[in-house]
Structures are given as structure tokens and as C-alpha cells.
Amino acid sequence: MAEKQFAGGSEAEIAVHWGEEQLIHPTVEFIAQANMTDASIYKRFSLENFPNCFKEYADLLDWYEYWHTTLDTSDAPCWKWFVGGKINASYNCIDRHLAKNKNKTAIHFVPEPIDERYEHITYRELYVRVNEFAALLRDFAKLKKGDRVTLHMPMVPELPITMLACARLGVIHSQVFGGFSGRACADRIVDSQSRVLITMDAYWRSGTLGDHKQNADIACGLAATDGQKVDTVLVWQRYPGKASSPTPMVKGRDHFVNELLKDFYGARVEPEKMPAEAPLFLMYTSGTTGKPKGCQHSTGGYLAYVAGTSKFVQDIHPEDVYWCMADIGWITGHSYIVYGPLAVCASTVIYEGVPTFPDAGRAWRIAQDLGVNIFHTAPTAIRALRKLGPDEPAKYTYNFKHMTTVGEPIEPEVWRWYYNVVGKGKAAIVDTWWQTETGGFLCSTIPAITPMKPGSAGPGMPGIHPIIYDEAGNVIPPGAGRAGNICIQNPWPGGFQTIWGDRDRFVRTYYERYCKNPKSKEWRDWPYMTGDAAVEAPDGYFRILGRVDDVINVSGHRLGTKEIESAALVVEEVAEAAVVPVAHEIKGREPDLYVALKPGFTPSRELEKKISDAIAREIGKIAKPRKVWIVKDMPNMRRVLAAISNKKDVGDVTTLANPDIVEDIRKMAG
Ligand code: WTA
């Protein structure tokens, strides 16, 4: 294979070892009930019918005013969809369902402790709680249209309630993954210029009620040092009226939401009629530099795209019980736990804790209890559940019609366990490939139309036209057996609008490489570069091989190598740091960290631990390296280190300034 050097070297190789898999068709029963069975959808969404084809998705929503321009390209490549349209996301996810479905469960909440009862929130109750909290945000926190507010919340119903209350007011929410550190939260507060932070005092994780309030104090302190003052911290209590965190409240700044809410009992807030292209939220993600990127998502285009894909790819019907096990702190949770499912009036499940707590049967018991029939998770979770309890699913009587895998490439062998054991050979599987930036799916099969192929995401979604370029910008045709950079030829409504406050970085990162004419206002000149490598089979199915840039996918979570390296450099003894991805049986990838010390310091176990702890403190536990290697000097070539970590041939090292060090490090890494 004549493809470029991939970071870590191993992504491409995994794929090379996979042969072509057979196509698997969904059951007759599945097809008989599916939302989308008309194969002409691909024709309707062909490039000839672009961009007007996306009206089909936008028409799934209720608009105050219809748009006059489907796609405005005048500020290329910052695309504007459905211009002239007025819409509110909170109204579309709640109010419009009340006439027919007010008593239906919108959210099933499953607390982690097994002795705590499930909570079932109807659409009517969601309406009440969102309205009251929106009134609090407006009248107490003084938030208004266009303001940004940072959320640092766990997996509890108060999180979607907060998001939807913001959306009701046109306030732009920026939810930071609950497992991220106070430092990471501070960086996002500063970048988005939030003066309000919304958090929760504590939450359950693996049997422990952890103190989360302390992260708010760290975040506010660090944000203030970096020039952004947070004047209001709204603290939801995990158990209203009961203290679950020992961290004291800061007078004048911190307020318990459940106490304030008493003043807003019965309040109703008219949804703001927002322009379709008004930002709905920011979602920060890792890139090639240390600074996370605030992906700015629109209201109308985004909601249309997630509603359409929830209906046609997730096959959600109002009577389904849908459980996506992702965290709402990631894009998957925003699009496919909250906005997409609620827009199509689903019952969506939110589970607070770890899927294997207290044992490998927990997930299947939840599915059985709630009658979940659509299940959505990541290869990492599938691998973990398979390892811990390969025969566990057969013990439960749940009945899935549909399952999703997302976030990482899935090995065909793991796919087959998912299909045969979890899905009991009946559930249709979609392998959905997409990104924080893209708002919704890019490649996937449509479950009743295109058959499944283990290990392949499938063809481009309707209206998404992928293309693979080699390094020189030539198109690699289907069936060429070569990998390249997968790009999307056209814009689509779910795509992010820009990087918050950094249009140059947006253009540089995603468009510069393959742009045909930087002055052009024509969308055809601006292919979107995803940063992933892929191969296209003769049948048009794409197999995604993984990132080609400095991003490591750990358990389906995106981490920047530079972010981890900068965190290591916070430790005063560290002079240089380099991170490489290492293959891991469950997590897919793990970071390995190499550091060289400043003169006068000596390596020790304690120092390794200090560095590892610093990374957990700076970013979050998910970024902790598998191993910290303290080396004498740094070969300064990630490729060489990755080869050593993965026990592969280091290749030609003669061009390095210090080739001898390579042998030293290799011996040390065993
Ligand atoms: C990877 C998550 C293979 C890919 C929605 C992408 C996948 C990155 C798949 C985005 C899949 C996501 N098969 N790889 N089905 N889905 N990826 O932004 O490398 O957290 O670029 O969005 O995950 O991760 P992000």
C-alpha cells in the first residue's frame, strides 16, 4: 500500500488485515416497520438536487418563518443554511409534541445506584421544568440571546433541561464533558467568554458519589487568572435539598438551583424566534494544537440534520424506547441523546453511570426494564461488555430492533458479537462515521435500504458526497485498494459554522489543503477535509481507518497529542514531552508518554506518577497515559516512538540528530 505514514502506523495496518466482509441484510420484520424504505432517497439527494434536497429534513421541523435561501455561500466556506428561516430548538423538541404526546415519557433517567428508582419525565413535565429554568436563567442569571454559558454537568436529566432552557432563550450553551478537569473547564469558559457556569454538586461513577463542585471552584479561579470572570455559578444538587459535596458555596457567586427555582414556580417563557443560522451551541474538541476548538453549531441546519438522521438512520418512531449510551458531554450525546431524538418525539434514556457497574449485566437489565428497542454505543463499550460478560445478553429478554456503533473503527469480530449476541441476530446495525464538527452522520447504511458490512461504515449518507484524495490531491477511485484523506465534496446542514472566534483556524484546518480556489464563493471549490484516512470499496462502502493528524482516539474520545504534551510540561522537571498512540484491546488506543527531564533531575517512579497525575489534573482521567517513559533524550520523531511503543520496526533513523538514543529507548521499552 502506497499511502502516507499514519500517526502510530497501526491504523492502516489493522485494516489491511481485514478482508472484504459479506453483506448482511436486515430482517423482513425490521424492513416492514422502518421509517425509510424508499431507495430513491439517494437519487433525491444526489449532487444534481443539491442543496434543495435538504428541504426534506427541514420540513420535519416547525418553523415560525420559512427560509428564502436554502444555502448561502457568500461567506465561503462559512455556509449558511435555510437563511431567512426563524425557528426555536426548544419548541421543536418539546412544545410541539404536547398536543398529542404530553403524557409520553421524554426522558427515562437511570441513576447509577441500583437501589435508586428510575425517573420518567413526560413531555409535559419536561416543558414545565425547562420553562421554569429558562425563566431563572433570564431573570436571575440575566442571560440573553447570543450570550454563552458554560455547563460542566454529569449524565442527569438536569443537563438536557439546562440545554433546552438555553435554547429556548437563544443562549448558546457550551457543555464540557463532566469527566474533564477544572482546568479544561476553565479554558472553555475563557475561550467562550462565559460569565455563568452551570454545574452539579456531585454524581455517581462506579459506585462513588464524587465531589464535582470542587471543579467549579478550580475552573472559576483559573478562568479569572486568564481574564474571564465568572460572576454566577448555578449548582444543581444531585439530591435536592441535601448536601452531597463538602466543597462550600462561595457567597454572592454560587447558588443552588433548586432553591432559586422556588421563585419561578409556574413560570412560562415564550421561545425566542431565532434565525436559522444563529448558533445553538459550542462543542469543544481536540485538534492538532494544544488549544481546543469551539465548534459552533447552528440552530436550523443542525436541528434539521439531526432530526432527519434520527428518523431515517436511527429509525426512531414515537413508540420506541431509545438508549444511546454516550455521554451528553460529547457530540454524540448532543445530537443523538438530546436534540435528534427529542425532535422526533422519542423516549430517550439517560444512564448516569458506568455500563459495567456493578456487573456486566447492568446494561442488559436496563434495556430489559425499560423495553429499550434501539441501542446505540461505541466499540469501546462493546469490547468491554464482550470481555466481561460474553454470554450475559442471552440471560435477558430485551428485544433490540436496531443498534448503532459510533466513534471508532469496529473490528469485524467485535461487530459479529454485537450482531449475534447483543442483537440476538435480529437487530439491524448501523456503523455511523462522523465527527464533532459534522453535527451528524457522514457515512452509514440506511438500515432498511443498504445492507450491513462488518467493519465498514457504509456509503455516504443521502446528500453527503465523500471523496478520497491522495497527498497530491488526486482522487483515489473506489476499489483502488489504497487509503487516502477522506473529504466531503459538499456542505450539509449539520456541519459546524466555524471555530468560535477563530475563522482563520477553521479555514486552515478543514479547507486549505484541498481548496481549489481560495477566493471562490462556489461550494464545489471547498471540499471539507475530515482528518481521517479511509478506503473505498468497489461497491462504494467506506472503511474508516482512523485519524491522520495528531489526534488520538481513546475509548472513542478525542484527545490531542499536543494537549497531553502541554499538560506534561506543567511539571517543572519536564523539558520535553511526546505522546504516541498505542493499540489497546478495549480502548482501541491509549496514549504513551515519553519525556526528557531538565538537567539536574533524575528519573524515578514518583516522578512518573507526578507527571501522570498532572495530566489527569490538567485534562481529565481519560487522558492518563498508559505509561510514562522517562528517557535521556528525545529522538523528536513521533513515528519512531510510536514504532517502539507498538513494538514495530522503527524504519530509517539515520536522518535523526541522535540515532543512538533510539536503540537505548527500545531496550528500555522492552
Ligand atoms: C472517529 C464522534 C470509525 C474518526 C462522533 C473521527 C470513527 C473521530 C467512527 C471523531 C466510525 C467516529 N468508524 N471511526 N463509525 N465514528 N470515528 O469528534 O476518527 O468525538 O474523525 O466525534 O472519531 O470523533 P468525535
Task: Outline the structure in words.
The chain is an alpha/beta fold and 670 residues long. 29% of the residues lie in helices and 22% in strands. The protein is built from 21 helices and 30 strands. The chain has an 8-stranded mixed β-sheet, sandwiched between helices. It has a 7-stranded mixed β-sheet with strand order 5-4-17-16-18-19-20, sandwiched between helices. A hairpin with a 3-residue loop joins strand 28 (574-584) and strand 29 (588-597). Helix 9 (182-192) crosses helix 10. The chain binds 5'-O-[(S)-ethoxy(hydroxy)phosphoryl]adenosine (WTA). 5'-O-[(S)-ethoxy(hydroxy)phosphoryl]adenosine binds next to helix 13, strand 20, strand 24 and strand 25.
From the structure above, extract its key features:
670 residues, disordered N terminus
Indicate the topology.
Layout: H1 10-17, H2 28-33, H3 41-44, H4 55-58, E1 69-72, E2 80-83, E3 86-87, H5 89-93, H6 98-101, E4 105-110, E5 119-122, H7 123-139, E6 148-152, H8 158-169, E7 172-175, H9 182-192, E8 196-200, E9 202-205, E10 208-211, H10 213-225, E11 232-236, E12 254-256, H11 257-260, E13 274-275, E14 279-285, E15 293-298, H12 300-312, E16 321-324, H13 331-343, E17 347-351, H14 362-370, E18 374-377, H15 379-388, E19 402-406, H16 412-422, E20 428-432, E21 466-469, E22 484-488, E23 498-499, H17 503-510, E24 528-536, E25 542-547, E26 551-554, E27 557-560, H18 561-569, E28 574-584, E29 588-597, H19 605-618, E30 627-631, H20 638-645, H21 660-668
Parallel strand pairs: 4-17, 6-7, 6-8, 7-14, 8-11, 11-12, 16-17, 16-18, 18-19, 19-20, 29-30
Antiparallel strand pairs: 1-2, 3-13, 4-5, 9-10, 14-15, 15-23, 21-22, 22-24, 24-25, 26-27, 28-29
Bound molecules: 5'-O-[(S)-ethoxy(hydroxy)phosphoryl]adenosine (WTA).
Residues 285, 330-332, 406-409, 431-436, 457, 530-532, 544, 546-547, 553, 558 line the site of 5'-O-[(S)-ethoxy(hydroxy)phosphoryl]adenosine.
